[in-house]
Amino acid sequence: MGRPLLRAGRPEQDPGDIVSEQTEVPPFCVVPGSTVHEVLDGRQTEITDLVEAAYRLHGEGHTINPPSYFLRFPDRPTARIIALPASVGGGRPVDGIKWISSFPSNLDHGIPRASAVLILNDPATGYPYACLESSIISAVRTAASAAVAARALGENRPAPGRVGYLGTGLIARHVHSYLAALGRAPREYAVHDLSTEYAHGFADHLRTTGDGSPVHVLDSAEELVRSSDVVVCATTASTPHLLDPSWFAHHPLVLHVSLRDLGTDVILDSFNVVDDVEHVLKADTSVHLAEQRTGGRDFLDGTLYDVLTGALKAPADRTVVFSPFGLGVLDLTVGEHVHARAQEGGLLRPVDGFFHDLDRHSAPRSKGGRR
Amino acid sequence: MGRPLLRAGRPEQDPGDIVSEQTEVPPFCVVPGSTVHEVLDGRQTEITDLVEAAYRLHGEGHTINPPSYFLRFPDRPTARIIALPASVGGGRPVDGIKWISSFPSNLDHGIPRASAVLILNDPATGYPYACLESSIISAVRTAASAAVAARALGENRPAPGRVGYLGTGLIARHVHSYLAALGRAPREYAVHDLSTEYAHGFADHLRTTGDGSPVHVLDSAEELVRSSDVVVCATTASTPHLLDPSWFAHHPLVLHVSLRDLGTDVILDSFNVVDDVEHVLKADTSVHLAEQRTGGRDFLDGTLYDVLTGALKAPADRTVVFSPFGLGVLDLTVGEHVHARAQEGGLLRPVDGFFHDLDRHSAPRSKGGRR
Predict the structure, then answer these.
(1) At B225, which helix (H) or strand (E)?
(2) Is A300 in contact with A321 (CB distance < 8 Å)?
(3) What residues are paired with A318 via a beta bridge?
(4) Residues 6 or more apart from A189 whose CB is under 8 A from it?
(5) Which of A94, A246, B197, B282 has the smallest C-beta neighbourhood within 10 Å, fewest atoms?
(6) Touching check for A127 and chain B: CB below 8 Å?
(7) Handedness of CA B32, B37, B38, B40 (dihedral sign)
């Protein structure tokens, strides 16, 4: 894996021993958000390909991605911290966990709602070897998975005339940067948000960072949906509010990143692609509500992996909805990449003494004895 | 909580604002094992009291301690990484997660089996503020909980004539250091391990670090159990092997740290105290097996909290078994203490730029808008 490894300084070990790198303890590094940003900035195409490769590994069964695990607080009902443990196989294997907080009340104080760390563990020894700031990684892998889907599901569609953003926060900004990197600039952008301030802020962002295409701030979600060929749903809505299938009569491609914007009738009227069936059919997502209403999963047409492998073709003459749960294996994949690039760039310094006195804590070598 | 806090440098914010500390982002620090060791070394009495206080908070319902969460690997069947998310209330509240690996194959390469990190989160904002090496914290909180139990359950017993250690690895060493700090030195020690090398290594450790009491390495578990007034079970046995209640006819106090050494007949013949009923009756612990066999929990006499509050008196004329699951809230409590002491001692340095560009990622301030 290209990481230098610490050798426990065992005096009885001949320094000439050929010790496999799998038997040594990796150094422990901290990767701050500033380094994560530096390493990922401007690398949208590379990260999109990386996330597509992770989805392929996932589809081939070379990952472990148990359900997310929620820590909730009776005294702070809107807050939660979620654990996403996971394991990625393939050529650059890594285990680990994302630990991501969402405290909506932070927004009232000018602090981002979400904060996160990602721990990477060495698959050979289990030792943690990195702690990365992970709010940027989370946003980036979410945006990259939308880009993977847009690329694969939009293949047989013309370049979009209008891309519409419903919900204009941090995730929308990242999705835009990833969709823009696909090189299929739309003729124009539409933007809508319940907060006019957010909507105009995002519109300014599109104008100053974009490709010169005009940006329209629209007054209603209906107008945005009806007029956009690609609809990016990036709100924080907890219950569906896009309820009328007739708004989708022009058969857009919907990147349903937020998971809870679309009503059941819209879902049942569309061609539905998800990233992981078991994960996304949980926690009252729009597709989960559709499952509850219909008592089955027949309305799901397949997974992104099916599309990537050519086993599933998305139609151009139906509304296509991509509902991505967002998998811990994507965070791990991007995190491992960030760590490797930071290391190549000389941006990492191991934390001295992180694993304290490995000899003192190691046991005498003996086979088969029970301690 | 006595931590300095970073203020997001919002230009529109009057620097004279009275901003509650609850609305700001704490700096992020890494606490290496060397610092953890420095801060905890020689503080057994203080940590024992701290862990007792945590058990009281837990008993009073001021904690959140969901079930542990296991990440397992089909290609590495003996390995696992366990997540213990938790929340502690009271006067020094903290949320967080322990992420602890156990890779038994490490021992064949002279590397400790377990490695761990602990993330502490600020209960006001959800922001992570520390990443601590946690194999030492884990061992220490385990040892401290054994000491809390020995102190409370041994109150009406004479000072032990002989303390016996069954299993002589890292946990036994820590338990010894915590029991020794209780100030009731036994007349002598007994030691047994399936590995003679381990047993003699631990005996030497007791002789060089101890109180001068003689140490006997015994050939059999039976001899150790029959001759000890306090039996510390600290093996890695996965199925019970102390099966005969007659070995316990002298009614010792058994600190069943390992959870799986005692056969069902021994459990059912004893006075049983646990730390948390729901947690310990899982994963085929000895008490779980007893529950499965009897179809009920009547054999459990109460919790450590009941003993600490005086609601439960442990008899001196029966075998008393303490089976501690080990709770994430203990790790958090000890970890918070380590962080606070390290900060007081000037041993912490925030990681520059860990939370990158808080302004860029924060949203415009607006009430009630959905992004």
Answers:
(1) helix B221-227
(2) no
(3) none
(4) A162, A163, A164, A165, A203, A206, A210, A213, A214, A215, A216
(5) A246
(6) yes
(7) positive
- Residue A53 is classified by DSSP as H
For residue B39, the distance in angstroms to the closest alpha carbon of chain A comes to 13
Six token digits for residue B51: 């862990």
Calculate helix-pair angle for A33-40, A135-153, nearest 10 degrees. Answer: 30
What is the DSSP secondary structure assignment for residue B125, as one 8-state letter? Answer: T
Check if the beta carbon of residue A57 is closer than 8 Å to that of residue A88. Answer: yes
Report pLDDT digits (tens) over B4-49: 454 443 333 333 333 344 578 999 999 999 999 999 999 999 999 9
Identify the residue among B115, B197, B205, B360 best suited for mutation to test binding to A, counting A beta carbons within 10 A and taking the highest: B115
Query: What are the extents of the domains in chain B?
Result: 21-138+329-345, 144-326
At residue B365, the pLDDT reads: 37
Block means of pLDDT (10 residues each) for chain A, 371 residues, are 42 38 84 97 98 98 96 96 98 98 93 95 98 97 98 94 96 96 93 96 92 94 98 96 98 98 98 97 97 98 98 97 96 98 96 81 38 35
Cβ-Cβ contacts under 8 Å, A71 against chain B: 64, 66, 85-87, 95, 97
Class at the top of the CATH hierarchy for domain B21-138+329-345: alpha beta
DSSP code of residue B353: T
Contact B265, B243 (CB under 8 A): yes
Question: Within the 326-345 window of chain A, which residues sit less than 8 Å (CB to CB) from chain B?
Answer: none
Tokens of A41: 């900035």
- Could you identify the residue written with the tokens 């979410």? A142
Whether B202 has its CB under 8 Å from any CB of chain A: the answer is: no
Sheet holding B215-217, edge to edge: B215-217, B188-192, B162-166, B230-233, B253-255, B320-323, B271-274, B300-303
Among the listed residues B134, B103, B130, B102, the one whose alpha carbon sits nearest the alpha carbon of residue B117: B134
Which of residues 59 through 78 in chain B touch A, CB cutoff 8 A? Answer: 64, 66, 69, 71-76
User: Which 8-state DSSP code applies to residue B350?
Assistant: B
What angle (nearest 5°) sits at the alpha carbon of residue A81, between those of residues A78 and A86? 145
pLDDT per position as a tens digit, B306-365 = 999 999 999 999 999 999 999 999 999 999 999 999 999 999 999 999 998 776 444 443
In this complex, the residue of B74, B115, B358 whose CB is nearest that of residue A112 is B358
* Closest C-alpha among A24, A95, A32, A6 to residue A352: A6
Domain A21-50+62-137+329-361 fold: ornithine cyclodeaminase, domain 1 (3.30.1780)
CATH of A139-327, one of 3.40.80.10, 3.40.605.10, 3.40.50.720, 3.90.1010.10: 3.40.50.720
Instruction: Name the amino acid, one letter, at A86.
Output: A
